[in-house]
Amino acid sequence: MNVMPRRPLFHQRQRTSLYRVFLLVVLILAAAWFASQVDKGAIKRPFLPTPTPTRTVRSFALEGEASFAAGKLEEAIAAYQEAARVEPSNAEVWAKLARIQTYSSNLLTTDAQRKARLKEALDSINEAVVLAPDDSTVHAMRAFVLDWNSNPILSGDQAQALLLEAEREALKALQLDNQNVLALAFYAEILVDEQKWSQAEQVILQAVQRDSSLMDVHRVYAYVLESTMRYREAKEEYQRAIEITPNLTFLYISVGHNYRRLAFDSDITSQRKELYNLALEYYTKAARMNEQLQINDPIPYSAIAKTYDQQGEFFIAALNAQKAIKIEPTNPDLYGRLGVIYQRARNYEGAILVLKCTVRGCTPAESCEALGGCAEGEEGATVASLPLTASSVDYYNVYGSLLAALSRPQQNYCPEALDVLAEVRAAFGSDPTIAGIVDAGEQICYSLAQSLVQTPTPYFTPTPLPTPRP
Question: In the predicted model, is pLDDT for residue 85 greater than 80?
């Protein structure tokens, strides 16, 4: 019996479509091609973050130049360091970095800070010389950096060797390019430090005649004039440098210093007062400029304090010295300056407290006490001692002398005084002025010690009282 196949009333039999197979093959091949292109990097993966464009060395260098012109030296240094990182073989970048690092040492207050910054500048310019050994400007910059490193207070026994090397670098720069104005200017600065004043003036005048548009030229010319005590002409050259770069605070400080020196030398009361006011005006400009640039720099306030101190206005001098300390509360040099003001104001006990922070260092509680107490919620600062150098010897002398002078049998500071004065004698005993101060302090303590030995301790016999009658 023939049975008819069942008709598909409710379902369709699956049939393979040739077009569907072809489409699937095409999709598989396209997916494989896409994956290979992604792996090769020809096609970027979707949903990746938008890439940030890489900055060029020129971009960082322009930022550095703009920051320097604006007076933001630390930001300028950071920008040039980034430029050197991006292109470490660029000698010009290293040379410009070294120049700014050297100038920025002018804004530091302690010898240790200045020495470290100048060492960084020397490392930068040495890198530039390796990269461009025949570049006149690079050698001129190295002469400049070496000269500032040759400061005897900072370099000690190496000062003369560094100065001679600076002179050789300047002469090499001029040999490579005898029209290099910066090389002439820096050579003149070196000649001043070698005490060759007439030759220095001849060289700097050549630089001024060739190009008077450079700040460095007028700064060095002012330095040459200062070295020959022509302070009025010197401040005018600094003012010309300010016209070229109006945001460098150390130039305003230099103008103020020259006005202050003119005031100190003047015998006319009204003129002296006017000159001191002009000095204060330039220091105040520097302080306000720092505030606008959000730069924490205690130097203008220290300069203001010293100016008032020279005029005998110790109260306002101390206020400005304290303001400088608030900016850098761990700086021992600033405590020393305040201590000298207190000593001149005859606040001897206050001077001892502050100078201890400079000479021996102090704890937060001691620094608070030295500054007359801290506000509620304000902590004092830990202050490290300032090493004994030619810059700090006055602080040690004043501290030791005050300890000796205020010593009494009931409160004897002489052991500490003699320790401090012995350190001064060991380091600077060959200086007759310093030796005389040390002798005077030691003599006070020796006299006190002798009096304690010779004077017997009094024995008090009780006075008999009459027996009361009944």
Answer: yes
* Residue 151: φ, ψ to 5°: -55, 120
Instruction: Let me know the angle formed at the C-alpha of 257 by 296 and 307, rounded to the nearest 5 degrees.
Output: 75
Does the residue 259 lie in any domain? no
134: CATH: 1.25.40.10
**DSSP conformational letter for 383:** B
The yes-or-no verdict on residue 425 having pLDDT over 60 is yes
Cβ contact 389:428 at 8 Å: no
Nearest alpha carbon to residue 203 among 183, 232, 176, 227: 183
Whether 270 shows a pLDDT value over 60: the answer reads yes
Does the residue 197 lie in any domain? no
Q: Which two tokens stand for residue 369?
A: 């006490």
- The neighbour count for residue 247, using CB atoms within 10 Å, is 17
- Note whether residue 154 is domain-resident: yes
Beta carbons of 384 and 110 less than 8 angstroms apart: no
Q: Which residues of 382-416 are buried (b: 16+ CB within 10 A; e: fewer)?
A: ebeebebbebbbbbbbbbbbbbbebbeeeebbbeb
**Both structure tokens of 447:** 């006299």
Q: What share of residues in the chain are helix, strand, coil (percent, to 5)?
A: 70, 0, 30
CA gap 245, 72 in Å, rounded:
12
Task: Single out the residue of 417, 470, 409 nearest to residue 440, CA to CA.
Answer: 417
Beta carbons within 10 angstroms of residue 294's beta carbon: 7
Tokens 């630089």, residue located: 207
- Cα-flanking dihedrals φ and ψ of residue 168, to 5°? -60, -40
- pLDDT, residue 30, reads 67
In a domain, 461, yes or no: no
Segment 302-359, tens digit of pLDDT? 999 999 999 999 999 999 999 999 999 999 999 999 999 999 999 999 999 999 999 9
Q: Is 462 exposed, middle or buried (0-12, 13-18, 19+ CB in 10 A)?
A: exposed
The count of domains in the chain is 2
pTM confidence score:
0.82
Residue in the structure block whose two tokens are 């240790």: 112
Other C-beta atoms closer than 10 Å to the C-beta of 170 total: 29
Task: Give the list of residues 6+ apart from residue 266 with CB closer than 8 angstroms, or none.
Answer: 272, 275
